[in-house]
Design brief:
heterodimer, A: 284 residues, alpha+beta, Ubiquitin-like (UB roll), Serum Albumin, Chain A, Domain 1, 5-stranded mixed beta sheet, B: alpha+beta, Yope Regulator, Chain: A, 6-stranded antiparallel beta sheet, two-stranded parallel ribbon
């Protein structure tokens, strides 16, 4: 199966971000168009270079090495894709460009994963891919791939090379999946994040496709309030088959990351400027 | 993947037996706990402290340092097998720097397996990740080969498995987890006494 235009649109989605350094207001902000499917720690080198040039903070200094990011007063859980973090912001996604604070002190070691030479983002990305393939194919496909193909997936993502990424990712995305990799996120008012993951097959017992509303019944059996599931800034109708949503809208880490929001789905879409506009003519 | 898989319920039921087998034989303080939003996910927590050699770079002043290890034994639904998450910190609670953590694991694995330093590709199997229920950063060993490993290690007979090939018998499950711990526990200096298998 060749990647289609929805998958390409998902890949190409970007967010304008404005990185500021509150501890030194004279330092000019750094503006960047960041891929929604990418990760903030991939920008650490650029941020350090910026601080070195404009804030006199040497790249090898403890401050630069223990750099972290904050938004709306809370550490950014940067092991999560950029777009997901944006969509999780409460009470609603911030105006664009998204102002993100750079911090050089008091790294929250009990809250944030620390990425660096001894714990690489690439290794974490591979960890996610392995788990997704364990769910889909008992890890057979990812384990059959050599290190070269694992590297190609990462390099493709890092360098925004969709074709380089897709030619390998295709192998992970094709074929019958035992369970579909997904996570449901809910940002709590106190800043906490609840993450739900459970085992979901692509089909119900009667072989009809499992829908998102079936998924909610499995994951949140006692939940009765009207809610919406959204991804990449787009609300999904509850009758959407999970397998379709997974195939079209999974992130490069091979997970479908869904944000739980109160209220009914506005099936016309939310019309937010940050959201990817799905071209409905390309729905299969 | 061939070999017996473990179900979550078999794992949950095996934990008390695991605790019973290890208590009194392993000196690490240990207990059963629950994690998760509805406290519905059982784990086993163990902790201890090790005196390890000081940083190699400072060979003239290699005073031993105390490293606190906090271990969680949980279950991965994705891999249908046990999974280890651990924290490594200084006595004051400050987490070990990533390079020191990697060194700690490397030294433990090498001393128990005798593999030379250069051949061990730790980076591809050791990661700091958010704990699946707790959310806080913890180290883990990628479980990708675990199920395969359990299949080779366990002596579970056909009678212990149900139609889907999963290990159901609690005793067999506890022994399977113990076998797994024998291998993976080495990364954090945990040595399972052979008497635990009796």
């Amino acid at each position: 199966t060749t990647p289609d235009s929805i998958q390409r649109q998902v890949w190409d989605g970007k967010l304008p971000v404005c990185f500021v350094l509150p501890e030194d207001p004279d330092v000019p902000p750094l503006y960047s168009l960041v891929p929604r499917v990418g990760y903030f720690p991939a920008l650490l080198d650029r941020l350090r270079a910026h601080l070195s040039r404009h804030a006199g903070i040497d790249e090898d200094s403890p401050g630069a090495q223990q750099l972290w990011l904050r938004s709306a007063g809370r550490p950014l859980r940067w092991h999560l894709p950029v777009g997901l973090l944006y969509d999780l912001e409460r009470p609603k996604p911030p105006p664009l460009p998204w102002e993100v604070e750079i911090r050089t002190r008091d790294f929250p070691t009990d809250e944030l994963v620390s990425f660096g030479p001894n714990n690489s983002l690439e290794s974490y990305f591979l960890y996610c891919l392995k788990e997704a393939d364990a769910l889909k194919h008992r890890a057979r496909v990812i384990n059959e791939m050599g290190e070269r193909e694992h590297r190609q997936l990462w390099q493709g993502l890092l360098n925004d090379q969709f074709d380089q990424f897709s030619v390998v990712n295709r192998k992970l995305m094709e074929g019958e999946a035992k369970y579909l990799p997904f996570r449901i996120y809910q940002q709590e008012a106190d800043g906490g994040l609840s993450v739900l993951q459970c085992l979901a097959k692509p089909h119900r017992e009667d072989s009809t496709p499992l829908t998102l509303s079936d998924l909610l019944r499995i994951c949140l059996p006692n939940f009765t309030d009207p809610v919406t599931l959204a991804t990449h800034g787009v609300s999904l109708p509850m009758e959407t088959p999970l397998a379709w949503a997974y195939d079209k809208l999974a992130y490069p880490d091979n997970f479908l990351h869904l944000v739980l929001q109160p209220g009914r789905c506005n099936s016309a879409g939310d019309g937010e400027s940050s959201a990817m506009q799905l071209d409905s003519s390309s729905e299969s | 993947l061939s070999g017996p898989m473990l179900s979550r319920s078999a794992f949950n039921e095996a934990l008390p037996q695991l605790l019973a087998r290890l208590s009194g034989r392993l000196s690490w303080p240990m207990r059963l706990a629950t994690v998760g939003a509805e406290s519905d996910t059982p784990v086993m927590e163990l902790q201890t402290s090790f005196l390890v050699a000081g940083p190699a770079a400072d060979a003239s002043d290699s005073a031993p340092v105390l490293v606190q290890v906090r271990l969680h034994i949980g279950f991965s639904s994705a891999y249908a097998c046990p999974v280890l998450h651990f924290c490594l910190s200084q006595p004051d609670g400050v987490p070990l720097a990533a390079s020191d953590a990697a060194d700690f694991v490397r030294v433990n694995v090498e001393s128990s397996t005798g593999e030379a330093a250069g051949q061990l590709d730790l980076a591809s199997v050791l990661s700091q990740v958010p704990h699946p229920q707790l959310g806080c950063p913890m180290y883990t060993l990628h479980p990708c080969r675990t199920a395969e490993l359990i299949g080779r290690l366990t002596s579970a007979s056909e009678a212990d498995r149900d139609g889907s090939g999963e290990v159901r018998d609690t005793n067999a499950a506890a022994l399977a987890v113990l076998s797994w711990l024998t291998v993976y526990g080495r990364a954090v200096g945990l040595q399972v006494p052979p008497e635990c298998f009796l």
